[in-house]
Automatic annotation (TrEMBL):
Matching NCBIfam families: PRK05303.1
GO CC entries: bacterial-type flagellum basal body, distal rod, P ring; outer membrane-bounded periplasmic space
Gene: flgI
InterPro entries assigned to the protein according to its UniProt record, in alphabetical order: Flag_FlgI
Protein name: Flagellar P-ring protein
High-level lineage: Bacteria, Pseudomonadati, Pseudomonadota, Alphaproteobacteria, Rhodobacterales
Signal peptide: 1-23
């Protein structure tokens, strides 16, 4: 009953899907990235303290002892030559993303991840950690209490872990100390980079911007770039020009793509996917082999040995599948999938059928397998 209900649900989704994937007008800010207006990745190496016996084993993670010694020496505590084995500290990598136009004194979120053999970061506190960018400069400093997203419990003979307690976040855990040297106000032109390059979409963005200003201020350079001439917009600054065009709505052009996930059996497709005339035949063949050995013993007081006689049961079963079916020219893939669902074809078999149709050259779309 459950299988039948799922099949009906899948059939309903496939029938509705072509109506859902029709492109609707989208804001330009959701279709492009503005040149120079981007975030920057930061990374640092630090120490989490205050753990409840779940820190690094310093014998297996000597780098933890080294950084702890350096921190104590900077605080005026001389530990040279000392032997200490605390279990409440863990070495971690700290990562963050510096948003565009972040100013000194602002706060950003950070992610903390253990790099040693620490069992959990629950309840720990990150000690002041500088965060560097790709140029080697320090742009932020992180510190605060780690909020881990998992839980762990351990006994004498068993251990249970839920989630990932060796990774956590610190909301607003880093303070910006250096600003990125980028002056938007000094630009005379700006490029708009499409997240999904397409000549038709780029042309529509160009036309929409030019209609908004009533003059030719935008020019399509290629399928992924539209250049905006700031001087021709007659706006007070580039920021004012971007604020005016980012909410202009454009209908993007969707590519014909089929994406399948073999692990979960998920199939996602666009509305413009088409199939040429092709014939399909599919069936399932099951081979079953069972070993059932028999032990044979001699009669009482008789001479002989106990032996094991092999017994093997082998059977081949062919489950009913799809007979020879013919697909007409120009049929949409959504119609084909809806028909396969109506016949009770499983998602795994459907993926195999789509692969075969693509291999035959009858599926006219980009085929992505994950």
């Amino acid at each position: 009953m459950l299988k039948k209900g799922l099949s009906c649900l899948a059939l309903a989704l496939w029938l509705i899907l072509p109506q859902l994937v029709v492109a609707a007008p989208i804001r330009i800010k959701d279709l492009v990235e503005f040149d120079g207006v981007r975030s920057n990745d930061l990374v640092g190496y630090g120490l989490v303290v205050g753990l409840n016996g779940t820190g690094d084993g310093l014998r297996n993670a000597p780098f933890t002892e080294e950084i702890m010694s350096n921190i104590l020496e900077r605080l005026g505590v001389n530990v040279a030559g000392e032997q200490f084995r605390p279990k409440n500290v863990a070495a971690v990598f700290v990562t963050a993303s510096l948003p565009p136009f972040a100013r000194a004194g602002g706060q950003i979120d950070v992610t903390v991840s253990a790099i040693g053999d620490a069992g959990s970061l629950l309840g720990g506190t990150l000690i002041m950690t500088p965060l560097n960018a790709a140029d080697g400069q320090i742009y932020a400093v992180a510190q605060g209490t780690v909020i881990a997203g998992g839980a762990s419990a351990e006994g004498d003979a068993a251990t249970i872990i839920q989630g990932v307690p060796t990774s956590g976040v610190i909301p607003s855990g880093a303070r910006v100390e250096r600003e990125v040297d980028f002056q938007l106000s000094s630009l005379t032109s700006l490029r708009l980079a499409l997240r999904s390059p397409d000549f038709t979409t780029a042309g529509r963005i160009e036309d929409a911007i030019n209609r908004e200003f009533g003059r030719r201020v935008a020019e399509m350079l290629d399928s992924g770039t539209v250049r905006l001439d700031i001087t021709k917009t007659r706006m007070a600054s580039p920021a004012h020009a971007l604020g005016r065009i980012e909410n202009i709505r454009v209908q993007p052009e969707l590519k014909a793509v089929v994406v399948v996930d073999q692990r979960s059996g998920t199939i996602v497709m666009g509305n413009d996917v088409r199939i040429s005339r092709v014939a399909v035949s599919q069936g399932n063949l099951t081979l079953r082999i069972e070993e059932a050995p028999i032990v044979v013993q001699p009669n009482p007081f008789a001479e002989g040995q106990t032996v094991v006689v092999p017994r093997t049961n082998a059977a081949i079963q062919e489950e009913p599948g799809i007979g020879l079916a013919e697909i007409d020219e120009g049929t949409s893939l959504s119609e084909v999938v809806a028909g396969l669902n109506a016949l009770g074809v499983s998602p795994r078999d459907m993926i195999d059928i789509l692969k075969s149709i693509k291999a035959a050259g009858a599926l006219h779309a980009e085929f992505v397998v994950r």
